[in-house]
Amino acid sequence: MFQTFDSAGDPAVGKPRVALLRQWLEANGLDGFIVPRADEHQGEYVADRSARLKWLAGFSGSAGVAIVLRDRAFVFVDGRYTLQVRSEVDVDIFSIESLVDNPPAVWLKDNLGKGARIGFDPWLHTISEIKALQASADKTGAVLVPLDKNPIDIIWEDQPDAPVAPVELHPIGFAGELAKDKLARLAAAIAKDGATHAVLTDPSSIAWAFNIRGGDVPHTPLALGFAILAADGAHQLFMDRRKFSRQVAAYLTQLAEPHEPGEFEAAIVALAKSGAKIALDPVLAADRLRMLVEENGGTVIAAADPARIPRATKNQAEINGSRAAHRRDGAAVAKLLCWLERQKPGSLDEISVVTRLEESRRRTGEETQMPLRDVSFDTISGAGPNGAIMHYRVSRATSRKLQAGELFLLDSGAQYQDGTTDITRTVPIGQPTQEMRERFTLVLKGMIGISTLRFPAGTRGSEIDAVARTALWKHGCDFAHGTGHGVGSYLAVHEGPQRIARTGTEKLLEGMMLSNEPGYYKEGSYGIRIENLILVTPAEEVEGGDIAMHGFETLTLAPIDTRLVRTDLLTRDELHWLDTYHARVLAEIGPMLDGETLAWLGKATAPLPHDLKQ
Fold first, then answer.
1. Which structural domains are found in the chain, ordered by start?
2. CA distance readout (Å), 532 to 27, 40, 251, 412
């Protein structure tokens, strides 16, 4: 198994570990310390060594911050984790705050008095974060103190070592472009930004630029490290060379001068002293890098990571790989759904479904000579009320039976060498209620609305997010997460900067892959989410129109459960989209199935009656 079912969080750890941290703060003349979930690379997944927030507070979510003061402690989470955090954190020790409505930069000015000294690790906070925190500190008179050593690392006696998983080469057939050509493009972009160098802190950008993959963090094929790219082509790569085979070392040496991670700071200092103009991405780069450049005479150029947009706009090889991966993955999911429908209510638990799905993906990958490399995230397998926990992670302690009259939400994904997948399906166990069918159909209307949308060049995700919510809003409902996130090509399943959300400020460009996943969650009862991955298509002229319009191609291929569809709530166009989509699912994954699974798929994708009245 690529995932485990041990309990992720533990509220019991908070009390003794917060006490240790407070002893350290007192001994070092500090009134508080900020503990983000992030590591030095600001990725979604962190290595065990960097899971400082989880070690301190017990919280296992992918986004959060703790602030520990001498007499109080707080954990900040967003809407995805409002339920989860209360089960993983000792609420007698930590007060829970909103990471969205009352983030640390806002909280700080309202809760700290003049002269309060708050420590932070400048390697774990971005330039933008510290700028916002400093502005608040200035208003209240508090003092932010950058620390040379993270106190968590001092008091964490059995902290794991840094990972050294092997680096592998990503073949040109999947990458679609040679690394030397990518690096030449990036060098030109650096010069255009007025910089002599740019620092890549995001391992996804390094993986994409150098055509390598690794295994240093869960579920995302990344090799942790840093790169300094130069406008003149004299690139440097900072990565533990124990990860390199002889072949990989020879390959990388042709592209960049290799160094150990411990040499990174000295290299930044040397460049700064030489008068270099170093581009740092304010929303990705650690504030420590800004400090090193500015304190040693260099110039910081605030510029986006030069690899982010090229990485996000997939080339034809990556698009073709994704289509193949989704056909394979759709077949595996269909096998699972067929099997699930045959089981008696109450006979399965959440873990057994996760185990069966991973085995289905593994076998389908072997049959098609494209092995399953990993899951792309821990599967969300939520029965009944667990489905209402948006980022629920099933454990042996929480696994529920799939009972009659409940909904079951299954959000999962896979990592294949040719593509990354992410799909959510919600199915009824036994007979669903009319409310469940109504809410499911409202969510489906939003998903179809995004799928069929046409939009002009320059449109941002924030401008279309409401399309997925309109039907829900009309019925007084909503969901507390974005509609869609970017997706990498055998990289991070949650990739920036593209997204469909209120915060989605990046333009949606041809070749970007995103998720399309509206939902509805009734706390304590059930959750609904329908998710497909979509691809931004080239702008095309619209008959009778004035300007060309982009659209979306749906990549995901698996049936949507029509037992939950209220056809009287769908328009004729929406019904046509659903029937057309199901016909495509049958045509594309049907040849990969046989026997009762193929027969089941034929029924699951059959056209719906368009005149049915409920």
1. 11-155 (3.40.350.10), 168-304 (3.40.350.10), 313-596 (3.90.230.10)
2. 53, 31, 37, 11
More confident residue, 83 or 241: 241
Residue 376 structure tokens: 């792309």
CA distances in angstroms from 427 to 93, 258, 288, 331, 568, listed in the order given: 39, 51, 48, 17, 19
In tens, the pLDDT along 471-530 reads: 999 999 999 999 999 999 999 999 999 999 999 999 999 999 999 999 999 999 999 999
CA distances from 605 to 280, 325, 423, 574, 590 (A): 49, 20, 17, 15, 10
User: Long-range pairs for 23-30 at CB < 8 Å and ≥24 separation?
Assistant: 24/151, 24/154, 24/155, 25/68, 25/70, 25/119, 25/151, 26/70, 28/119, 28/151, 29/117, 30/117, 30/118, 30/119, 30/145
Instruction: Please state, in angstroms and rounded to a whole number, the distance separating the CA atoms of residues 512 and 313.
Output: 5
Mean pLDDT of 573-599: 97
Q: Given this model, what pLDDT does residue 611 score?
A: 62
Lookup: tokens for 37? 């979930």
In this predicted structure, what is the pLDDT of residue 609? 86
435 phi and psi, to 5 degrees?
Answer: -65, -45
Copy the structure tokens of residue 231. 């406008």
Report pLDDT digits (tens) over 325-336: 999 999 999 999
Once rounded to an integer, what is the mean pLDDT over residues 296-315?
98
> What is the C-alpha to C-alpha distance for residues 518 and 531, in angstroms, rounded to an integer?
7
**204-214 tens-digit pLDDT:** 999 999 999 99
Q: Which helix (H) or strand (E) holds 588?
A: helix 572-589
